[in-house]
Amino acid sequence: MAHKKALYVSVTLTIAIAVIASLVINSNVDDFQGSLKNTVAPMIQNARFNYQGNNSGSATDDSKKINFASDSTLNKYDSTAQRITANFSYTFNDAFVTANPSAQIKINAKINDASSGSLTTELAQTTVTLDTSTNSGTYSNGLYTVTKYLSISLPSNISLAVNTAYQAVITLDPDNNYVETSETDNSSTVSFTYNIAPSQYPDIIAKNINVNKVPLADGTTPEHITYDICVDNYNDVASQVYNGKQITVELKVNSQLANNQYTLGTDLAQNKCKHFDGIVNSMNPGDTIQVDLKVDSTNQVTESNENNNQTSQSFVY
After folding, report:
1. Among 83, 140, 209, 222, fewest CB within 10 Å belongs to which?
2. Rounded Cα distance, 162 and 306, in Å
3. Residue 2: which H helix or E strand, with range?
4. What pLDDT, in 10s, does the model give residues 164-173?
5. Res 203: pLDDT
6. For residue 24, is it within any domain?
7. Pick from 60, 58, 51, 129: which is nearest to 90 by CA?
8. Is 308 within 8 Å of 208 (Cβ atoms)?
9. Strand arrangement of the beta sheet that strand 256-263 belongs to
10. From CA 41, how far away is CA 211, in angstroms rounded?
11. Can you tell me the distance from the alpha carbon of 241 to that of 245, in angstroms, rounded to the nearest whole number?
């Protein structure tokens, strides 16, 4: 009888242990899928962080999240260096450092047209390695806060119009690689008017229209129209703004119109003019040739003098 009682107690104890084990396992699974509140959950959560290589943990677990914040008051566009500068900060705790020992963040910079909001520049992107050492930044209530100065160089082919409103935009973690305590402060925008001082405006000049007879190899001597386009005050600041920009020169001979394209910084620069030579065809002796020349006809360049862009001459063929 004593033997049967002992057996009964053993079986009962085994069943109880199995039930308890089942409850613990079920509890762990629930916690892994849910709020992860019990003592087993942090170990599972840490393993999940380490496996994925970032802090994409449960949306309800704020203990290991980070927060990035961009300071819009310091966000500005430097026209001379073609860059956006800003400060941004990030706040984290010890648990985040354990889960992300070599954390990096992507940061995007762009320039928008203020009137339309459309993208004006190609996206410029940089990657910053976060300083997550426990002695970095300031410490308060279990959180470390680090502030970094940021300078992003934009593509060299940016073409912004002088006296035009734009927006400089900084976006932190644009691909949402990190789950943050707040996702509402990752982007900042500041408006500015792109400009250079009037004393640094260049001046494009149309001059030296001539019609001359030039003998050709076939023995004919057709009339040639020649002109020169020059640019003055093409200083360092002006070249930063306008290098690579194309201007249009309209040449009208009587009723016939021809457009020529010239590139600033290449065809035209300080102490460098562009000479044009073209043949006048289908004219009769005694005909009047009216030549009108207009440079930068589409107003691509803000100039110190807009009154010397046109000139006209009349010639008798």
Report:
1. 140
2. 14
3. helix 2-33
4. 888 888 999 9
5. 93
6. no
7. 129
8. no
9. 256-263, 246-253, 288-295, 310-316
10. 90
11. 9
End residue of a domain, out of 176, 194, 212: 194
- Strand (E) or helix (H) holding 4: helix 2-33
CA torsion, ordered 275, 279, 283, 286, to nearest 10 deg:
50
Residue 32 lies in a domain: no
- Give the distance, in angstroms, between the CA of residue 246 and the centroid of all CA atoms in the same chain: 22
Side chain identity at residue 137, one-letter code: G
Query: If residue 310 lies in a helix (H) or strand (E), which one and from where to where?
Result: strand 310-316
Express each pLDDT in 90-99 by its tens digit: 998 888 888 8
Q: Are 247 and 231 within 8 A, CB to CB? A: no
In contact, 245 and 263? CB cutoff 8 Å: yes
Encoded tokens for 132? 């997550």
Range of the domain at 170: 66-194
Residue 197, SS3 per DSSP: coil
Report how far apart, in Å, the C-alpha atoms of 213 and of each of 7, 143, 224, 284 are.
Answer: 127, 84, 6, 14
- Got the DSSP string for 22-53? HHHHHHHHHHHHTT--SSSHHHHHHHHHHHHT
State both tokens at 181. 């305590």
Residue finishing a domain among 194, 209, 240: 194
What stretches in the chain show pLDDT beneath 70? 1-65, 80, 117-122, 134, 156-157, 159, 214, 281-283
Q: Where are the beta strands (DSSP E) in 195-309?
A: 203-213, 223-232, 246-253, 256-263, 274-280, 288-295
